[in-house]
Amino acid sequence: MFGAARSRTLGLIPVERYEYADVAPLREVRALLGRVLRGHKPDARTVTLLALAHRSGVLGHLFDLDGGKRVEELVRDDWAGQAVKTYVDKTTTKPDGSGDGMTLLASGGS
Question: By three-state DSSP, how is residue 85 classified?
Answer without folding.
Answer: helix
